[in-house]
Amino acid sequence: MAAAAAAAVGGPQPPQAEVPAPGLALDKAATAAHLKAALSRPDNRAGAEELQALLERVLSAERPLAAAADGEEAAAAGGGGGPGAAEEEALEWCKCLLAGGGGYDEFCAAVRAYDPAALCGLVWTANFVAYRCRTCGISPCMSLCAECFHQGDHTGHDFNMFRSQAGGACDCGDSNVMRESGFCKRHQIKSSSNIPCVPKDLLMMSEFVLPRFIFCLIQYLREGYNEPADVPSEKDLNKVLQLLEPQISFLEDLTKMGGAMRSVLTQVLTNQQNYKDLTSGLGENACARKSHEKYLIALKSSGLTYPEDKLVYGIQEPSAGASTLAVQGFASAAGTLGQLDSSDEEDQDGSQGLGKRKRVKLSSNTKDQSIMDVLEHKSFLEELLFWTIKYEFPQKMVTFLLNMLPDQEYKVAFTKTFVQHYAFIMKTLKKSHESDTMSNRIVHISVQLFSNEELARQVTEECQLLDIMVTVLLYMMESCLIKSELQDEENSLHVVVNCGEALLKNNTYWPLVSDFINILSHQSVAKRFLEDHGLLVTWMNFVSFFQGMNLNKRELNEHVEFESQTYYAAFAAELEACAQPMWGLLSHCKVRETQEYTRNVVRYCLEALQDWFDAINFVDEPAPNQVTFHLPLHRYYAMFLSKAVKCQELDLDSVLPDQEMLMKLMIHPLQIQASLAEIHSNMWVRNGLQIKGQAMTYVQSHFCNSMIDPDIYLLQVCASRLDPDYFISSVFERFKVVDLLTMASQHQNTVLDAEHERSMLEGALTFLVILLSLRLHLGMSDDEILRAEMVAQLCMNDRTHSSLLDLIPENPNPKSGIIPGSYSFESVLSAVADFKAPVFEPGGSMQQGMYTPKAEVWDHEFDPVMVILRTVYRRDVQSAMDRYTAFLKQSGKFPGNPWPPYKKRTPLHPSYKGLMRLLHCKTLHIVLFTLLYKILMDHQNLSEHVLCMVLYLIELGLENSAEEESDEEASACGPERCHDSWFPGSNLVSNMRHFINYVRVRVPETAPEVKRDSLASTSSDSLGSLQNSGTAQVFSLVAERRKKFQEIINRSNSEANQVVRPKTSSKWSAPGSAPQLTTAILEIKESILSLLIKLHHKLSGKQNSYYPPWLDDIEILIQPEIPKYSHGDGITAVERILLKAALQSRMNKRIIEEICRKVTPPVPPKKITAAEKKTLDKEERRQKARERQQKLLAEFASRQKSFMETAMDVDSPESDIPMEITTAEPQVSEAVYDCVICGQSGPSSEDRPTGLVVLLQASSVLGQCRDNIEPKKLPISEEEQIYPWDTCAAVHDVRLSLLQRYFKDSSCLLAVSIGWEGGVYVQTCGHTLHIDCHKSYMESLRNDQVLQGFSVDKGEFTCPLCRQFANSVLPCYPGSNVENHLWQRPSNKSIQDLIKEVEELQGRPGAFPVSISSETNLSKEMESVMKDIKNTTQKKYRDYSKTPGSPDNDFLFMYSVARTNLELELIHRGGNLCSGGASTAGKRSCLNQLFHVLALHMRLYSIDSEYNPWRKLTQLLEEMSSQLGNEEQQPEVPILYHDVTSLLLIQILMMPQPLHKDHFTCIVKVLFTLLYTQGLVALSVKCNEEDRSAWKHTGALKKNTCDAEKSYEVLLSFVISELSKGKLYHEEGTQECATIIPVAWSPESMEKYLQDFCLPFLRITSLLQHHLFGEDLPSCQEEEEFSVLSSCLGLLPTFYQTEHPFISASCLDWPVPAFDIISQWCFEINSFTERHAEQGKALLIQESKWKLPHLLQLPENYNTIFQYYHRKTCSVCTKVPKDPAVCLVCGTFVCLKGLCCKQQSYCECVLHSQNCGAGTGIFLLINASVIIIIRGHRFCLWGSVYLDAHGEEDRDLRRGKPLYICKERYKVLEQQWISHTFDHINKRWGPHYNGL
Question: Which residues contact 734 (CB under 8 A, 6 or more apart)?
């Protein structure tokens, strides 16, 4: 047979049969076996040929895709008929052949047995939940699948769970990426030793079949790719991919067979010979040739060349969509290696206008070109990858390629292939429409390859990985370059990236950049990079594309029309593309041996900077009104300098450029600092909000250490090396406040508006303070830096652990040592902060666990400078100061308003000592002197902040002064002469005491200083003579700076003079150029010291307030660190400075004493300073405000009594002080109400009724009661399930349906209550309003469109007074609120009389003072509120009748509303009335009003007196037999099956209101007899036969005693004997055994049982009595609750003695002889049990002991919930939901927002909330760990009940730290659920439109 089959296969085939004949199909197995045998022979050529022929036919690629390409049969493709069938057939053949005739599944199992599973390698796609453990990871990208993570031991490690963004693979078992200690149990064993060798014949067939199969797949891919004129549409590609789904899946399954199969696949994929044979396209097979042509076309169209096609190479066809760049020259960065070609070419280029980019050669070698353009495929793997890229990385293909990675040989081959295709990947990515998805897929692959250091190193060496990456990045950015407009718009040669382009805006570059960062994290790779000069040059070129991007130009006239948001892109690009690679490189420059690398980087960085300055034509002045925040070249330079000094012990000067270059370097960073001040001074408002956004981003925690920190460091370096006078004057000039620094009281500022002057001056001084006191890069250790950062953040605000981690700028490169969550972080945190555990204010916001600074931190470490540097919002600085003030007040250190404290700095690193020269230069001293003088003289525009900073600078100078007072005067020669008349030297200590007598100033002619005397008018010649007499000359900072600049330039190269452009000097010349200025000479006669002392007087407001402390206590000079000076205000600061000045020099000490000795001249009459005036005003204003407030409050109080209590405590129902709505004076017969809208008080009347603001809501809380105390647990495994059979609602449902089966419907509906599910609960805030006022209020709400959160159309509103949510108004019944006068006089009528009265009253229809017929406003309102109540709940919770719409239904519904509200109040009281007291909801109870409304409507339905149960209870009926009625009619419900509480409500509500107390008590007494009898019956059914006969006997003996009717034994015995007449007790031994509990009944236990049986009724009745008659409830112990309640209800005769033990039976008061009525009741039962004994028994046993409702109990650890539910399938749609949620009330698992489970436009959560909670749902969102509440048509996020170890929520599980249940929060949630206060407590509600 086999031979025949083979022959048939080999024989000629009829041409039309495309699929092998069906007969053969059956014999696939046989054929396979035959071939396998043939191939196993030593000479297997024949077998091989035979197999080839078979495969050729089976796997022919012609048909299917021809069809697919035409697109006609594409629809049928998936079906059986079309091409799909052929493909399936082919797959079947393959499987058979692989298995060699055996079963495929057995084959798979056999192969798996040889799997040396050393690696996990599980591949996952986006959104998969994985784990990362930083403790075990070597590479930061390490990740583990959940299974490996949970099977490894990671206790105490720093791990987190995360949702994969791009997909990934499990690294378990890979020791290159993670430490072996973290491997899981499965991958710990080093295998391969114990795995047997793979038998040769097992995989032999695979080696033959797979090459053909893969080739077939490649042919399909070639066929399917049509390169039309435009880019192929997504749709076509997806179509092809869908067709190929089964094939690729087949390959994927093969990879999962384990190592043995993978190595076969690797052989097939990488074998070059196979590939050549099959794909050369030279064979005679037309199909193969065509396919090869398509392949070449695809290559060409991608702008790639195939090396053999010499033709194509060289002549670049401008083919469709090609991104080819002409070989001759590329657009590229300015100023690369080659100089610009020649000047004439430059001119040509310039003449081409702005549009064209400047072309510069990239680099001389052509290898770059080949990187970009040549691809040669030599194996299947290479071409497969090519098509994978071409098809934009289909997920299936990616997974297949990654699944192969555990095979080491494959891994290397694949990595090389990937690198080879890198340029092509970039091109495809740029063109892709779906760049996001594609980026994720690329990174999914590359992160697996490049995280492995060994592999990365190998590829770097063998495949030029670094060259390729850098070149590809450069090319990528070149496509979006524009000409830079910085500085010199016309002639700039610099090009920058255009941040508006998609490439940057959409972050398309990130996959490439992230790969680059990834490989730079490996030391071996980074070293190669740092050694390769060519690469560094190229890289600096790349970085310079970003230098100066996103330039801002200040708008001076109009507001910009369009605010561009490109700045996001710019900041992201600099951080990702420049800064992160920089940090990566820096992390390898940590030791001395790496000095060479730093020198290389610094050298090329400086070259690039020099080129940049040339390209933008920069000389010495930055263009005005421009700023760019992006200077990556400056920052590279700065960071490498810092590293060189800090870690590599390099001499700083050896890597610094000359002075001229330093001057240029400082300009742009300084410009940024000045611009920051301008932006904060609102000088850039016309540029829109985005400019503020930039200023904030620049200092924000993720950016600051790559942006502002390097900038400031670079400025510090420049300042330490440049002339200090030059630097200081540059600063003030940049900040545009030069003109302000004059002694004159008026000045003109040519460059700044007056309103901005003050804040710019503050900015300049603050900048100087930061510059001089920041030590981040100047000598602080890493731990000190971390501590300083942490203190700064904590001082601004208390912080949660996670926000601290986020706010502290860690080194952006993950390998840098400071890993968030590392030990140093935790140890520093515990050193500086205290943990505040989360607090729960009920109803407040949920607090998180916070860290707050320790006291000693405030005392010694609070550093305002650091705070200012790190605040994104200016208000945070204020917040830190406020907290500091509060600390000082609290600790009693300083009572007033303190100034920022001065903090001692860590010592400077010796390399930067020069920085302190800034503090000792005359320019700064002149500025300080001038400012002190101006402040003393109260010139305008100077603030306390300015003074604070001035003093800070003086103090810094004193702290950092040279040891001995040097006499530098000698050096003050030529160019410095202008200073002579100001200060003699440059040391601050000596300059402080130098007196300055006269100063010449330029002032406007109008200024008061202009004296009309000879001095002012002297000619300029005679000015010279004055100079020597101690007058200072005009001091112009600008002139100084010019001069200095000139000098430096001359010094550095004499011929560079012509560089200084003289034309600019006029622009910046001294302000003298304005004509109206004139010169005046001021007499000053002050020194800095004298100014300080006068300032002290001024600040303290007292003459001679300063007295040198050392005169009293000489010690002070010896130990100067006196704590009393460390905190305080300006006065303290001045004292501290004077003390330090005295310490530093004896001269100063003497001069201070002298100044103090001179009696200070009387100060001119003291003007109140602005500041003091402010405080006085403030006091006065406050006083007035207080008076106003008092008045208002008094008024308010009179209008609204005790409003606070009424409104404010919605949250805690327990602790209220009772407050009646009425004015509770007994003589008032009518209740008076205040309307909260119109403010009038008065009674509620027929015409103008008043109403209570109420919220009606449907509630199923009662239905959730169960009969056991332990709450149910949330199921966390398949075994645990929750069944709702034992809930209160279910039990009541069963009872009602049982009754309805056997009894008359109308009678059933009176025998029970409904509302356990979907009952209507009514609550009020206690405020009242006129109903007509309410209507107009609603109108106004309707017109107010802004309202969110509630829907006015549904009648919702908020109470006008307390803003509590409400949706209806309950009318107050006219008349007294509490029927005081009626029940005060109990009548002595007998019970029989009362019973008659009750019956008569019930029979009288509508006996109301208001007759229903006359429609008054009141009755209309009552009707409308009744409608509201009905509409509150769904129809299914109202209609229980068999005949829809029967009046009995409404009747049932109405008394059930009363029942629901009473039962819920009972639950709010904790399920019993032991606590007593007034109603917890005292003032907020609306039961009284509710009863009126219900009673009014109940009386519309008069019960037919025939059926009135009252008669059955109180009369003996004559003939019993007629009672049974005809057989065919259903009987009425026997009275013993009635629910007594329901009967009570029916009776009460049928009475005319107001009710007499007597009648009430009468009804209760009658019903108690029935209840007691029910208890006895239930007891008799529960016990067994012999107990029954014993009781029957004992009771019968006592029957004739006097109070037999009040003895339970007698009654029980009677009941048993009566019921024995029927069949109730028969049927023993059937399934009823379940309900019989074998208990030995003692008299005590029986008494207890009866009391427990009756208690629920007594509780409800007592509550009812309390509400109807206003009686207080007595409090008691639990054991005496029964007796207390029964006496309170008047059941216990008053003369009852309490000596002998209390017996419940003593409360009985039978209206008719007990035995008669009992037998009458029992007769009904017997006649029913004749037919239905079992049901009869079931109905008698009522469960009355319901425990309080609870939410489900949750597990301790959130992970247990998450792991079970996040992969669980939904039972409705059988899919794993995207957003799974679980109901915390019943444990149902639902799809949140899932369209899969949507029914009639309701999504599943909303639907469930209606079915489970009648509109209230509490859901735990599994993927977010938060709880959402659905209430009707609104929802809100409630928060989380799971917190991490630091007391924080983790919404959306972003941090993925372990979470633990917070029991307090869960209690709060449960409390809100039970008390129905979600609406009041949670504030953020929104509509859900049924979409949850």
Answer: 670, 671, 673, 674
